[in-house]
Structure formats: structure tokens, C-alpha cells
Specification:
The chain has a five-stranded parallel sheet, with no helix packed on it. It is α/β, with parallel strands linked by helices and about 120 residues long. The chain starts with 15 loop residues before the first helix and ends with a strand. The chain is globular, with a radius of gyration of 13 Å. The protein has one helix and five strands; from the N terminus they run αβββββ. The longest helix is centred in the first third of the chain and has 14 residues. Helix content is about 10%, strand content about 15%.
Length: about 120
């Protein structure tokens, strides 16, 4: 799977640090609310305000979302293995068919959320 829209996987990207920084800005600042079949693995999204985003078929492997605000987000058929989400808020979110093996969800707020499969 290509990392973001780069055409490269994370491991083989020619400029991973710069690309990760640009991809982070795209997710946070672009105003885009819906993402489908994107690979956001290894991104540092800690403390990010991502409220109300819709993620479908996306990959967040080893992504850092520590302390992020993901309130009201929808995650459908996403891979979140190794996700670092300690202290994040997923309140009023909807998670359907998520793979979250080996993730850190310590002190995460799931108040009012639908967690299915």
C-alpha cells in the first residue's frame, strides 16, 4: 500500500521525514473531512485536532495519536495495529471492523461511541 498519495511505501520513500510533515498538514489543516484507502502509518498526529473526520479503509499502523481529539470521527474497516493513542478522545466516534492489535489505548475516552466488531 502506498503511503498517502506518494506512490511509495513508508520504508522505501525517498524523503520520509518531509513527506510525513506534509501529510500531517494535509490531514489537519486542509479542511478535508473524508479519507478513503489512505496509508497514514508512522505519522505523528499527537495532540492533533481531527474532530469529525471520516476514515474508510485507511491504515494507521504505528501511528502516534497520543492526546489527539478524534471526537465524532468514523473509522470503517481501518487497520490501527501498534497505534499509540494514550489520552486521546474518541468520544462520540464510530468504529466499525477495526484491527487494533497491540495498540495503546490507555486513558482513552470512548464516551458515547459505537464500537462494532
Amino acid at each position: 500500500m502506498a503511503w498517502g498519495d506518494s506512490g511509495f511505501c513508508h520504508t522505501h520513500h525517498p524523503a520520509p521525514v518531509e513527506y510525513a510533515s506534509n501529510l500531517r498538514r494535509t490531514i489537519i489543516d486542509s479542511g478535508e473531512k473524508s479519507f478513503e484507502s489512505e496509508d497514514f502509518s508512522y505519522l505523528n498526529l499527537s495532540e492533533a485536532d481531527l474532530r469529525g473526520r471520516d476514515f474508510r479503509y485507511c491504515r494507521f499502523s504505528a501511528c502516534d495519536m497520543t492526546g489527539a481529539d478524534l471526537s465524532g470521527c468514523t473509522f470503517s474497516m481501518c487497520v490501527m495495529d501498534g497505534l499509540k493513542a494514550a489520552g486521546a478522545s474518541f468520544s462520540s466516534s464510530r468504529m466499525v471492523s477495526i484491527l487494533a492489535a497491540e495498540g495503546d489505548f490507555t486513558r482513552v475516552d470512548f464516551t458515547g461511541s459505537d464500537l462494532i466488531n
